[in-house]
Design goal:
- The protein is mainly beta.
- The protein has 2 domains: about 190 residues, no CATH class; about 80 residues, Sandwich (Immunoglobulin-like).
- The chain has 4 helices and 20 strands.
- The strands form 4 sheets. It has an 8-stranded antiparallel sheet.
- A hairpin with a 5-residue loop joins β16 and β17.
- The protein is elongated and about 65 Å long.
Length: about 325
């Protein structure tokens, strides 16, 4: 996306010590991580969504498939790319990744949460390019009240790892929620500093519950960060209620000239509904009661109009 309009308010994560906790792995069902990444191909920020979808096996070990969803260069479709593979061990409190996007076939440790403050661990899944060193120092382990920063109840451990060669290269991981930068290794081998300086997780949505995010959640979750030119046009397309659970009303912009096509895509860019529309009535209703709960993208195309907006379907 171009010329991003977004506000990232500072959130004070107050350390609250001595809360007994159960270990929480990363969610593996109906989970979405919205990350702002700096794209060197366009030299601008772009919003990316990472999600878990499916299983596979390597060397008799089970992995989850992590997909990268991108709506650039068009906001009317979604490109879904197999990004990496993830294996979690709840007993060892470790998470491994196979960085498929780099052509790798061997797993590398990404998170080791069976540590104490002061320990040094090797996390080669977050070793990139020119840096050539995977050693991280566990600087602190605190507790975060998730009610302060999302709709998730209770406390989660907050781990801070700093690189032994560059303190600015840090991993700040909230257990079972996200890393401050990007939860999943996410860049090529050329731009090595990207995950530490040019990415930020702005929302985590799991089973329609906001585990983490900047409010208002509907603005920062999914492909909702628009450029300056698109924002005024897109605001003319209205859907209500949103989130919807049975019937959603779509109000067309005044600039719409019939005929046109309305398409609703799921988060993998697959069309789930397509219908012809006219400008005889400036609003109409759609039944979404049979839709699976989650995030959808509603697109309207005609000779005069090409606009898109996000639609959330809840139970």
């Amino acid at each position: 996306m171009k010329n991003l309009i977004y506000a990232l308010p500072l959130i004070l994560l107050l350390p609250i010590i001595n809360h007994a906790q159960t270990y929480y792995p990363l969610p593996e069902d109906n989970a979405y991580w919205t990350v702002l990444e700096f794209d060197y191909n366009i030299w601008e920020y772009n919003d990316i969504v990472y999600t878990v979808n499916g299983d596979t096996t390597f060397n008799n070990m089970n992995y989850k498939k992590i997909y990268r969803l991108d709506d650039y260069p068009t906001i009317y479709d979604t490109i879904s790319t197999l990004h990496c593979f993830m294996r979690q061990d709840v007993e060892e409190k470790k998470i491994w990744f196979i960085r498929h996007y780099l052509g790798e076939t061997v797993e590398k440790l990404g998170y080791d949460l069976n540590v104490n403050v002061g320990d040094t661990v090797s996390l080669p899944a977050f070793q990139f390019g020119e840096f050539g060193d995977s050693l991280y120092y566990c600087q602190s382990i605190d507790s975060v009240n998730m009610e302060i920063i999302g709709e998730l109840d209770g406390f989660r451990k907050d781990y801070w790892f700093s690189s032994t060669i560059n303190s600015d290269m840090s991993i700040n991981y909230i257990e079972g929620v996200k890393d401050w930068r990007s939860t999943f290794p996410n860049l090529d081998s050329f731009y090595g500093f990207d995950p530490f300086h040019q990415s930020e997780t702005v929302c985590v949505l799991v089973n329609n519950t906001y585990y983490y995010g900047y409010e208002p959640f509907y603005k920062y979750c999914g492909f909702v960060v628009l450029d300056t030119d698109d924002y005024a046009i897109n605001s003319e397309l209205k859907t209500f209620p949103n989130p919807a659970w049975d019937i959603v009303t779509v109000q067309l912009p005044d600039t719409f000239i019939s005929p046109g096509t309305l398409t609703i895509y799921n988060n993998f860019g697959e069309p789930v509904l397509r219908m012809k529309i006219s400008g005889l009535n400036n609003s109409f209703a759609i039944d979404v009661s049979n839709f699976i709960n989650g995030i959808y993208f509603l697109s309207i195309n005609s000779n005069s109009t090409n606009i898109s907006t996000k639609l959330i379907v809840k139970p």
